[in-house]
Specification:
The chain is of the alpha+beta class. Helices cover about 15% and strands about 35% of the residues. It folds into three domains: about 1-30; about 30-115, no CATH class; about 125-320, Jelly Rolls (Sandwich), CATH 2.60.120.200.
């Protein structure tokens, strides 16, 4: 009897040693509970639904900093794993890019963000459209039949750090593009409805004494610029001194691409500021037309004052209508997300 007990104890001890050794030498084969992954999957699903429900998808899609900060603030670090990266896929087939953002403990999940971006095309309301894709010479060509071509000034140069193809880089100290106004009945003389828009990547804000970093400007007519607080400012000059300076509530993020736009309707007197395709502010000052003149138009500077832009500008468009959607910009609110769960690496 005694010998049997000893044999049982020896077997149990040997089994325990073998199990411990197996766990130690072959951890990859250890069966782990899947509840943490299930909970993570549910949590990530809720996070993405929250982003989409807040209609803030475009912000996180265009800003790695905001996305990472958002995830770090709402993801419990005690859970085994968190979002590791999202994959940005350009549906035009340009290229796919995997960007690592967040590596907490295990690589548990992947989010695919599908983006459909494209340059503008000329429509019946387009007065001027500069893709700014030129990588040779010093001319910014207008895509419309209006021939509003511009000439690079000072040290303005092209770069490939852009939203689409190439774009122009401005140093904030003298660079701009000058577009000649041909005179009476110029297509740039818009009196009733106007939309001014561009993709921008500002590098710095203007010093207080400068007031603005101009994006697009036609002196004593219309302009869109960044003020010294980082707010987008839409400017409309009207008869009898009834000018409008409409300042956005949101401020720009430096070193990040954003789409900015301003519209004005003479019938309502409303200036509307759009930030990444969404209405940021409406300024109502009553009906009145826009002043017209023979002043040249500038990209990256005020026409009469040296308020130079510092950073990159891409895809500039002026239209003789009040647009409410901006092509692929509006599609940023409708990103689709898919989630995949994998084993820890």
């Amino acid at each position: 009897m005694k010998g049997s007990i000893i044999s049982i104890i020896e077997v149990m001890l040997t089994g325990t040693i073998l199990i411990v050794a197996f766990y130690f030498f072959f951890p990859q084969y250890v069966i782990r509970p899947k509840w943490d992954r299930v909970l993570l999957s549910v949590k990530v699903r809720d996070i993405l639904n929250t982003i989409d429900g807040l209609n803030k998808t475009y912000e996180y899609a265009k800003s790695t900093t905001k996305f990472k900060s958002f995830m770090e603030n709402i993801t419990d670090p005690s859970i085994h794993g968190a979002l590791v990266y999202w994959k940005e896929t350009d549906l035009s087939g340009a290229d796919d890019m995997d960007i690592p953002y967040f590596t907490e403990a295990y690589k548990e999940s992947i989010v695919d963000v599908f983006i459909n971006r494209s340059e503008y095309s000329v429509d019946p309301y387009t007065v001027a459209l500069w893709h700014l894709n030129e990588d040779v010479g010093n001319t910014a060509y207008d895509e419309t039949p209006n021939n509003n071509d511009g000439t690079w000034q000072d040290d303005t140069d092209y770069t490939n750090d852009c939203m689409f193809g190439y774009c122009l880089e401005f140093d904030g100290a003298g660079d701009y593009v000058n577009v000649l106004d041909p005179g009476v009945d110029s297509s740039l003389d818009i009196e009733e409805e106007i939309t001014i828009e561009a993709w921008i990547k500002p590098r710095s804000l203007p010093p207080p004494a400068t007031l603005y970093r101009a994006i697009i400007s036609k002196s004593i007519a219309y302009a869109i610029a960044i003020n010294d607080d980082g707010n987008i400012t839409g400017i409309i000059y009207r008869p009898a001194g009834l000018h409008i300076f409409c300042v956005s509530r949101a401020s720009v993020q430096l070193d990040e691409w954003i789409h900015v736009a301003m519209t004005y309707s003479s019938s309502t007197g409303d200036v509307t500021i759009f930030y990444n395709g969404n209405i940021d502010r409406i300024c109502d000052r009553g009906p009145a037309g826009i002043l017209t003149n023979n002043n040249d138009l500038r990209i990256g500077s005020m026409t009469s004052i040296a308020m130079f832009f510092d950073g990159m500008i891409d895809e500039v468009r002026i239209s003789n209508t009040t647009r409410t959607s901006f092509g692929s910009v509006g599609q940023y609110d409708a990103y689709s997300f898919t989630l995949g769960l994998g084993y820890p690496y």
